[in-house]
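Here is one chain, start to finish.
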Amino acid sequence: MEDAFRQAGGARTNVAESVVSLRVLATSDLHMHLYPHDYHADRPDDSRGLAALARVIQAASAGADNCLLVDNGDLIQGSPMGDTAAEAVANDPDRPHPAIAALNRLGYDVATLGNHEFDFGLDAVERIYAQAAFPVVLANVARSAPDGGGPVFPAFAVIERDVVTKCGGTVPLRIGITGFAPPETTIWNRAKLEERVVTESILDSARRTVPRMREAGCDIVIALCHAGTSGADAAGESDRAARELAAVTGIDVVVAGHSHERFPGPDDCGSGLIAGTPVVVPGCHGSDLGQIDLTLARASDGRWHCRDSTVRLRPADAPVGPAPESWTDSKASYARVLNAVFDDHVRTLSRMRRPLGTLDHPVTTYFAAAGDYRAAGLVAWALRRHILRVAPVGSLDHGPLLVSTTTYPAGARRGAEGYLDIPRGRLRMRHVNELYPFANMLVLRRVRGAELRAWLERSAACYETVAPGARDLPLLAPTTPLYDLEIIDGLTWQIDLSRPPGTGRVRYLCHRGQPIGDDEPFTLALNDYRDSGSGGFCAPRSGPALHHFDMPVPEILADILSHPGARPPDRPAPWRFAPMPDATVVLDTGASARSHRIRGLQLGLIDVGGPAPPGFARFRKTMS
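Its structure:
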């Protein structure tokens, strides 16, 4: 019994009164997956999303004496409902945004922003998050001087709680929470932000902000970091900053995201620690709820420290508990989300079910890396038709028109199920939204041949280097997503995989069969994301933009494809691999690709059966 007490200043103090358990629950990268419905497949899906997580949130919070619920950004963009809601709020600023309404009803305590919040521009972000009944924090994004300077949102918030101790009493605890968005946001969203904001390195911002939080009396500090946990060799700060943040003095907990990964994972042995700091990355689209359980102890000088922690992920489809009251409470939480978003769900369904034209052949991305051009080619064909119809007089007088497109979706962060698979027959808006889910705007630029070559050289970096005679090497580089395979419709070229990336992989670059010169002028149509220089692509700057179109790309596609008689042609890809005698490569793609074996054979791909990661199928291609 004597061990339960500590002598302090002549008085006997109950040690249990100085020990507190705090549970931090976290969501990240929800991307407007709120209602239990897959809008692209047009079917119910209760395996993920905020409604499914609501039951898990209720069960997890009910099992804790002290609990905090946070969101780590990329909330309001990323599903068809996101576009529906953004348009509705733009037309009626007083209309509740479904995501914020849902978080309000679930009792979130604090949130930060990711990069995709800014896809709609600064005014929209401020208007939407003004509806939050909880603090919104963001330390490394501020207004630019011409826009008045100052923070967009407060750098941190202090939540004061009377928390329950181990012995059942209560003590005051000041919880400090700060947030960080990817510094690259101002590049990725240059067109939308119009230089109205500036960003700072996450680490630099943290080293300034955390001491201020401690000076403000914060007993513990939680960092909401919309960045990944990759190693130091990761290309961008958004991929690795959360790992570096975990080593910053004064930070007790890190909630990470952006990468759509799940941490802790099977290889982490369940510790959930990086640099000794508990870290959680709760997947994406509402796949998981992150849970960090902290045991906090107060020293004799009144300072709190983390004595122990456990980190886990709770899947959205996990059982919530056997007790009848758990089911009742979880159903109530589920209903709160459904009620908050139902009107937007109905509007989204109506929009996604809108009939357009007809497809004469399936359009998939299973074999896009090996030259299946149906998806990217459809986009290029539709954009070209639109440009020729509506471009202002004179804007196309600066050289032949070329159209830049990419391949999406095609695995990467979306995994084995993340491939486009549109059947032949009736085409609907949901198919177009899956083919091109981003509300990018189209830009016309004057470019030179040298810029086009550099553009395609960067694009070819998504492939592995293959030595002549090599057998069954992976076709794709593991660190470069296939959506960085940017294709310029209107040219032809060869990709030499025997050369390392950036060393002249692009050969025989031609326009209408004639080699193009470095100074040869062209007119390039590209989206505003690439026009900003995003994804490692050097933005074309041979001159000012020739024209900015005012219709988002998905709406352009819908408009063109709904015209009577519109039939996208089935064209070969404009590029080929350079022959490599005796070399073979393998492509791991979604297992449903096996339903399109004939298409694979047309591209020289043979199903080899395996081995492949779970959910994938492996195909071999001979490079001769």
